[in-house]
Amino acid sequence: MLKLHLRKMSSSSSQNYAQDFVNFLNASPTPYHAVHNMKAHLLKYNFKELKETEAWEFGNQIQPKGKYFVTRNNSSIIAFVIGNKWTAGNPIAITGAHTDSPVLRIKPISNKVKEKFQQIGVEVYGGGIWHSWFDSDLSIAGRVMCKDEKSGKIVSRLVDLKKPLLKIPTLAIHLDRTVNERFEFNKEAQLLPIAGLVNESKGKKTGCCGNEDSELSDTQFSSIKSIIERHHEDLLELIVKEVSLPSINSIEDFELILYDNKPSCLGGLHQEFIFSGRLDNLTSCFTSMHGLSEAADVDLENETGIRLMSCFDHEEIGSSTAQGADSNFLPNILERLTLSNAEGYVKSLLLESSAKSFFLSSDVAHGVHPNYASKSEEDHKPELGAGPVIKINANQRYMTNSPGLVLIKQIADKAKVPLQLFVVKNDSPCGSTIGPILASKTGIRTLDLGNAILSMHSIRETGAARDIASQIGLFKQYFATYSKTYDDIVV
Predict the structure, then answer these.
(1) Bond from prior residue into 393 cis (ω within 30 degrees of 0)
(2) Which of 60, 68, 179, 221 has the greatest number of C-beta atoms within 10 Å?
């Protein structure tokens, strides 16, 4: 039996992983930041970046025992390690996660003033528990498209303002005595953050020329209102300072997201919890990243397969985007890897690899809630801290079946990682994941699993510290041994 030199998990290493994860969460307020930090981690492990715009020739750009990653839109990333004995038609061990979470995004025209309050227009993204955003200290992060003074090109810069800037205030109970019975609000009119008080000494700004009705010369004409007309100047000045731009005029556009300014942290009487936003689903991004990087060199000399991690944007809104799981991102990478290693264009080898491969669709699961235990199916109550949860649904909202369950059990037994089982109640709705999307798109056998959390889609979710190490251990074992395990289970 193959002996793996993988780091043994102790309580101290478990805590280290949890603290590392907290640090990752605090540095990753947006998908752009998450992918940036994942790239930095992979580079530290000697992965090399590839570009979709360039040719990948086996033996040149990619080669046996090579470690690589490629991004799309800077919000999705795929990383892979090629076994020394890889040939087209061999298996690929794949994990999948998503980088996005339900958030509030700043609208293209966000400049609002009401009752002498400066307000920011926001748009809901995904299915958040929006009442949890009220009365939280909110900051702003994202990416800014700006002019590079040296090259004259438009480039993308990450920005994180890292300070409490906004607040969505609730109405005082004295003005709404029913607020504790039901909390209802209009998402367009009342989920609107305040950003400051109007500074009347600055005077009213009427646009780039001081008179919005005046005609613009050809050199002044802009097909879209200028950035300073669309957004509060005070916000733009904060961005200019943070990104070290010469002036507001350097900003062409941006994609900015609101997030809870309160840092992610370990909590509980024994620091057994992780309190944070974005556990859904930066949890699986972090654990799959570590699983791949730490297993990358394990018995790579004899590896016949490929070990691959994928993290996609836009899962929370259906995945049907250029960088979502329903795009051609993963199929394109699989095709490049398989066919670049084949003699000529042998399509059947890609299909053969797909038939031998396996996809672990990893997204967080619903842990049993002590105050709402009746919401869980009585025999399937995932506990926080008790290991990854295998998600099963007869209506195929999750893709787990018996052969996949047997396979993951064999891997978990070797890694000594406990697993749990989850199904929803028959009278409850069931969410879904990227698993069914990619299974139907590629034909690759798929299983859904993830760590249990509470308050999924809240601005502040709760997970278990020890589950981070458990899932990393499972993923490490999966990447290191799948190619030697898959054909033991005959379907």
Answers:
(1) no
(2) 68
Cα of 406 vs its chain's centroid, Å: 28
Domain that holds residue 71: 11-101+277-488
d(Cα 320, Cα 26) in Å, to the nearest integer? 28
Radius of gyration of the chain (CA): 24
Please tell me the predicted confidence (pLDDT) of residue 306. 98
In a domain, 191, yes or no: yes
- Long-range contacts formed by 252-256: CB under 8 A, 24+ apart: 252/145, 252/146, 252/147, 252/154, 252/227, 253/144, 253/145, 253/227, 254/106, 254/142, 254/143, 254/144, 254/145, 254/159, 255/32, 255/105, 255/142, 255/143, 256/105, 256/106, 256/140, 256/141, 256/142, 256/159
Asked if 62 and 174 sit in the same domain, the reply is no
At 293, the pLDDT band (50, 70, 90 cuts) reads very high
CB 274 within 8 A of CB 466: no
Alpha-carbon distance of 456 to 285, in angstroms, equals: 16
SS3 content of the chain, % helix, strand, coil (to 5): 30, 25, 45
Tell me: pLDDT of 447 over 80.
yes
205-214, 215-224, 252-261: segment of lowest average pLDDT: 205-214
DSSP codes of every residue in 457-475: TSSSEEEEHHHHHHHHHHH
Q: Label residue 487 by pLDDT band (50, 70, 90).
A: confident
Residue (of 323, 231, 306) closest to 479 by Cα position: 306
How many domains are contained in the chain? 2
Give the orientation angle of helix 434-442 with respect to helix 329-340, to 10 degrees.
40
Q: Are 75 and 255 in contact (CB under 8 A)?
A: no
- Regarding whether 444 and 308 lie in a shared domain, the answer is yes
Max CA distance (Å), the chain:
80
Residue 410 lies in a domain: yes
> Which CATH number characterizes residue 199's domain?
2.30.250.10
Q: Which helix (H) or strand (E) holds 203?
A: none
**Cβ-based neighbour number of residue 92 at 10 Å:** 25
Together in a domain, 53 and 172? no
Specify the 3-state DSSP secondary structure of 452: strand
Residue 95 and residue 87 in contact, taking contact as beta carbons nearer than 8 Å = no
Residues 155 and 231 in one domain: yes
